Amino acid sequence: MNPFSYGTIVKEPYFFNRHVECDKIVSTLSGGNNLVLFAPRRFGKTSLVLYAVEKLEKMKYTCVYFDFMPVYSRESFIQTYSKALVSTQSNLQKAVKATAAFVKGIRPKLVFDQSGNPEFSLDFTENKIDEKTLGEILDLPEHLASPDKRFIIVLDEFQEINKLNGENFEKLFRSKIQHHQYVNYLFLGSRTHLLNDMFNNKGRAFYNAAMLMQIGSLPQEETVDFLISRFASSGIKIEQHLALFIIEQAGVIPYYIQLLAAEVWQYVVNSIQKIDRELIIKCAEKIVDLKSDYYYELYDKLSAYQKKLLKALVVSGENVFSLNYTKKFRLTAASTTQKALAGLIESGIVEKVNGRYFIGDPFFKQFIIRYA
User: Fold this and answer.
1) Which of 268, 290, 312 is the last residue before a domain boundary?
2) Phi, psi at 357, each rounded to 5°
3) What total number of domains does the chain contain?
4) How far is CA 335 from CA 322, 340, 353, in A?
5) Is the pLDDT at 327 greater than 70, yes or no?
6) For residues 274, 279, 280 and 282, what is the CA-based torsion angle, rounded to 10 degrees?
7) For the chain, which end, N or C, has fewer CB atoms within 10 Å of the first or last residue's CB respectively?
8) Do 89 and 204 sit in the same domain of this protein?
9) What is the CATH number of the domain that holds 321?
10) 206-215 residue pLDDT tens
11) Model confidence band, residue 186 (pLDDT cutoffs 50, 70, 90)
């Protein structure tokens, strides 16, 4: 069985444990504070958060994971959020009754699936969802919690609340949770520029609503040890400098490190070949080839200036708006570059960390080098 995992929530032994970050998440939330977690795509933030949730649950916290991505309306939010909350309760019937007594705009009930297991469901008492019902749903975790049964609510893809009547929903949400005494919140999402604006913009409702935490690259030495030990679990030896080369080829991003390592492992198992630089390069090229149709389509949709800017970012993502950068890569006005860059960030192609811009997918970067 392949000792590397990617594309899904990664758990031990496949999960590379960020001990420092995990401990900070646990201590912040258990200390009664809210937290917002910033990280570019594929940095493993959801796997990290769910690993921290396991630790919090062992500390007897009731943890609720809620993903905003599938939510498309206020009705769907109320249905899925209330179900996520009630489903964590040991006594479903009691939780349904408590919900029915607290939220007047819905009729919660228990239904049974084909296996006879009880599930939470609800009907709406009115055709239109009013602010009162929505506010009561937002207050529901505080109503279900107590001093002896504290809640931790993990809100993934939180920036997607913009779909729910935008800043009005933000303001209502913030006005409710700021009064919660027995519930703390962890906010995270993949569109970091939107999340960053929500919590750092003085004009937004969630300004200063949570402690800020940014996930950076994996610690190099520990990542090398992880790769060596995972290959060794299958009886395959990899030299330290070659493990470093995998990390470099994968852009120091957890998802892509596991992806490339999995491809290398598969190749070695099938060919009984030693790992060397040529093999790692061959496996990286194979990944690019397998995704080339997608990359061609992605690249073709970009404007001519965005393509030119991407070729510049392949070389450097530092001081992008400087005069020297503009001259070196034959770009035009900084305002044009800024507009093109904003579009690339919005589409998820480019990420920004600590003032540096980079192509989020290292294999798309290799595709640009090879074919663009």
Assistant:
1) 290
2) -100, 140
3) 3
4) 11, 9, 20
5) yes
6) -160
7) N
8) yes
9) 1.10.10.10
10) 999 999 998 8
11) very high
**According to the model, what pLDDT value does residue 166 have?**
66
CA 176 vs. chain centroid, Å, equals 25
Which string of DSSP letters, residue by residue, matches 176-228?
A: HHTT-SSEEEEEE-S-HHHHHHHHH-TTSTTTTSSEEEE--PPPHHHHHHHHH
Residue that has been written with the tokens 């090229």 in this structure: 285
Tell me if 159 sits within 8 A of 189, measured CB to CB. yes
Of 111-120, 177-186, 304-313, which gets the smallest average pLDDT?
Answer: 111-120
Residues 193, 240 within the same domain: no
Q: Comparing C-alpha atoms, which of 237, 190, 227 is closest to residue 40?
A: 190
Q: Are residues 326 and 348 in the same domain?
A: yes
Find the angle CA(356)-CA(362)-CA(366) to the nearest 5 degrees: 115
- Mean pLDDT calculated for residue range 359-367: 96
Name the amino acid, one letter, at 149.
K
The tens digit of pLDDT for each residue in 69-98 reads 999 988 999 999 999 999 888 888 888 899
Decide: 98 and 186 in contact? Cβ < 8 Å.
Answer: no
In the block, tokens 């009162």 appear at: 132
Q: What is the CATH number of the domain that holds 147?
A: 3.40.50.300
pTM of the predicted structure, to 2 decimals: 0.85
User: 267: which residues sit within 8 A by CB, 6+ positions away?
Assistant: 273, 279, 282, 283
